[in-house]
Amino acid sequence: MPKASGGTSDPVFTEVQRRVYSLNYRIKEYEQKIAEVQKLIPLVQGDREIEVLHRLLDGDSMRAIGKHMNLSSTTIFRVRNNILKQMVK
């Protein structure tokens, strides 16, 4: 009997391997971005800004943050922009 050439000819297995590799790459990119943001957290001042930042990092939407804090989503967008300005300084 002939020996296998070393690879798999199963197209489903090959596609799963490709997707897993792609997702792992994306996860590493996100982890790097989150680490950069976490380094800048001490630069953020103000109770409102800190609360919004932590909720954003937890994955809450602008609308959900606004409902929790009894603020409009427009105000939350403004607070987020203030956070970004503080981090860039």
Write the topology of this structure.
Elements: H1 11-40, H2 47-57, H3 62-69, H4 73-88
Structure write-up:
The protein is mostly helical and 89 residues long. It folds into two domains: 10-43; 44-89, Arc Repressor Mutant, subunit A (Orthogonal Bundle). It is 73% helix and 0% strand. It is built from four helices and no strands. It has helices spanning 11-40, 47-57, 62-69, 73-88. The termini are far apart.
Strand/helix succession: HHHH
- In CATH's first tier, which class of the largest domain applies? Mainly Alpha
The amount of helix comes to over 70%
Radius of gyration: 22 Å
pLDDT < 50 runs, ≥5 residues: none
Distance between the termini: 69 Å
Summarize the model shown.
The protein is mostly helical. The protein has helices spanning 11-40, 47-57, 62-69, 73-88.
Salient structural properties:
89 residues; 0% strand; Arc Repressor Mutant, subunit A; elongated; mainly alpha
